[in-house]
Amino acid sequence: MGENGASVYYQYPSYPSMDVVSAEQGGSKCYDDDGRLKRTGTVWTSSAHIITAVIGSGVLSLAWAIGQLGWVAGPTVMILFSLVTYYTSALLSDCYRSGDPSTGKRNYTYMDAVQANLNGIKVKICGFLQYANIFGVAIGYTIAASVSMVAIKRSNCFHQNGKQDPCHVSSNIYMIMFGVVQIFFSQIPDFDQISWLSIVAAIMSFTYSTIGLSLGIVQVIANGKVKGSLTGISIGVVTPTDKVWRSLQAFGDIAFAYSYSLILIEIQDTIKAPPPSEAKVMKRATVISVAVTTLFYMLCGCMGYAAFGDAAPGNLLTGFGFYNPFWLLDIANAAIVIHLVGAYQVYCQPLFAFVEKWANQKWPKNKFITKDITVPLSSTTSYNLNLFRLTWRSLFVVLTTVISMLMPFFNDVVGFLGALGFWPLTVYFPVEMYIVQKKVPKWSTRWICLQLLSLACFIISVAAAAGSIAGVVSDLKVYKPFKATY
Q1: Span 463-484, pLDDT tens digits
Q2: DSSP characters over 307-356
Q3: DSSP 479
């Protein structure tokens, strides 16, 4: 880290000195005001990044989450989380620049924004939580991708052999396959170069969400009624203690489904320079993204619960509430896997770049770390291969894959990740930075309201984490490592 909480993003080419000077004066056609290559992001690319990150595997657990809370609390909690996420994201987007919203100093990463506004130990705490959460998301997405690949295998087995065949399949080989693909895609140098992957992933997320919604509607019609109850899964079906733990875990699942604040600043750093200001563009992208995702969440979660009631599976498209048409389920699960390939990269690029920036500053003369090897791909294009990037990112993917094989508990992991990241990264730091940046007077009405919002979200996060940990402990009692079968 540099003196100013150095940027996560580090681009290795040296800029011509005249260009840098003209860039600083705002006269360069190639560089922004900070001497970096001109950013080209728009409200639509930013929305694609957010939707890729948000409409992830979490959407598939929402029918189960609403099943724990019921028709009253389930949708209400979902709407409240969406409003909180939008509001705090708007606060956070104002922290991209310090001072003037159009010309102030850029904060390239979430940690840079915390450094500029809060300083001290809070910067280290923020960095630890952000990167630990990214690491956890990588594990969660590896588990989710393998579950969908297993579901494809099992749906074809059921189709061939009938539902009486248990069709047990090990998930390990599919986690390894997903890891191999991620090693390849992780060599994309930085965030600016994955817009195409985000767009493909966003399209895939709409594909499988629409299929899940459609199957839910068809199932409700086939049932001839809407299942579920006002208060969720009944005591008797589960014990009173389990009812409490599962309800708390549902809060974590919903929080995870809205979690993207930890990469918001990094997404904002791809937006082209003002006018309008990056903050205005980011707020528009946030409105679009949160509105779209909430609509999909409400439709998928509510229709899944209406279709299956208390029996709503933890993963709508892999829990085999639906068996047919098997080919449509295969398409949906294939779309999930493709989406998760992109989502993994959207989340992990900030961590990849942070480690590479730190290593480059720590050992600036080490050729293994700093030297790029030009690999020609065709007569007109080439790829700059960096051996440190190849080694470190590959090791990261291998580690997340191994841990996923050790603890493949989709719902519990999703709930715990949501609880871990929601309060500190989505609420606490954006609120505290906004108070400092806008000089909100202590004990003023606005200050008190912001602190009450933060306190309420803290209590929810602690409760959700407790519920998810209880779920993991329960799973571990019957689980054997590396022998996960579905």
Answers
A1: 878 877 777 777 666 666 555 5
A2: HHGGG--SSTTTSSS--SSHHHHHHHHHHHHHHHHHHHHHHHHHHHHHHH
A3: -
- pLDDT, tens digit (0-9, with 9 covering 90-100), for 188-237: 877 667 778 878 887 887 788 788 788 888 888 888 888 878 888 877 77
Q: Report how far residue 463's alpha carbon sits from residue 140's, in angstroms, rounded to the nearest whole number.
A: 20
Q: Which residues contact 467 (CB under 8 A, 6 or more apart)?
A: 244, 245, 246, 247, 248, 249, 250, 251, 252, 415, 419
Q: How does 421-455 read in b/e, with b if 16+ C-beta sit within 10 Å? A: bbbbbbbbbbbbbbbebeebeeeeeeeeebeebbe
pTM: 0.76
Let me know: does 321 contact 312? Beta carbons within 8 Å: yes
Q: Measure the CA–CA gap between 278 and 261, rounded to whole angstroms.
A: 16
DSSP 250: H
If phi > 0 it is left, if psi is from -120 to 50 it is alpha, else beta; for residue 9 that is: beta
- Residue 105, classed as helix, strand or coil, is strand
The sign of the torsion formed by the CA atoms of 239, 245, 246, 251 equals positive
First to last CA, the chain: 44
